[in-house]
Specification:
It contains ten helices and eight strands.
């Protein structure tokens, strides 16, 4: 198939609701190549803009990206710039696409994909990550204080759902819990869904539970490093904007 025809076919599949991973499989196109097509189609209009330095309102996906960074992200030196890297499980290509889109939207910089065993590192470089993600610092996140800045708290209070979504997609799971009862008529079992958020940083778990409190979503700490959301109404509330991973 001619390259331009392949691009047009990819666009039609994406517009029809087919995931990017499935569309690439059908068209036999490398996953990362399609992001290069998107970038090239915009030319140089897609430039790096730091909303903090320019005193602009951040892109709506910023708090989602913040959640992903707090869960599975890191910032490190890359030449004279800084690279934000977020580990995305290959089992969930739609989450990988959402992370890459958020990076591109927030920073306006090129996104790279580096394949590892079982996961792909989604990364983008700009010196302004240290402005946009002031939680960056030396050492692992659980070994140092992680505190949201006042302007970040304002964004979370305005709408905590994207932050919760990013945190759950990076460091949580939605699992089916099975209960067994021995009744006179025999053993009966039933299942119900639960969310588990695991992070060894006390501060990050606190950021997660504070966000849940803003939405009146019930939670409890089921282990020293884990938060459980199990009540039916609470799970239903999370399902409205999170749901199973894909």
């Amino acid at each position: 198939m001619h390259p331009q025809s392949t691009r047009d076919a990819l666009k039609r599949l994406l517009n029809a609701g087919v995931s990017r991973r499935e569309a690439c499989r059908q068209l036999q196109v490398d996953y990362s190549t399609t992001f290069n097509w998107d970038r090239n189609s915009r030319g140089r209009a897609h430039t790096v803009v730091c909303f903090r330095c320019a005193d602009l309102t951040p892109h709506p996906t910023y708090t989602y990206l913040l959640g992903q960074y707090l869960g599975d992200g890191c910032i490190s030196r890359s030449g004279r710039s800084m690279a934000l890297r977020i580990a995305c499980c290959d089992w969930y290509p739609e989450i990988m696409t959402e992370v890459a889109t958020a990076m591109k939207s927030v920073a306006g910089t090129r996104v790279h994909f580096t394949r590892k065993v079982g996961c792909t590192m989604v990364s983008a470089a700009t010196i302004h990550w240290k402005c946009m993600l002031p939680q960056h610092g030396p050492g692992l996140k659980h070994t140092r204080p992680i505190v949201l800045a006042d302007w970040q708290l304002d964004l979370v209070r305005a709408d905590p759902r994207p932050l919760i979504r990013g945190l759950i997609q990076s460091d949580a799971c939605r699992a089916m819990n099975t209960i067994h009862h021995n009744l006179p008529g025999g053993r009966r079992s039933y299942q119900y869904p639960r969310y588990f958020f695991s992070n060894v940083s006390d501060d990050i778990r606190g950021i997660f539970t504070d966000a849940l409190d803003l939405l009146d979503i019930d939670w409890k700490q089921n282990r020293w490093n884990s938060i459980s959301v199990a009540k039916r109404d609470a799970v239903a509330a999370l399902d409205e904007f999170v749901g199973p991973k894909s």
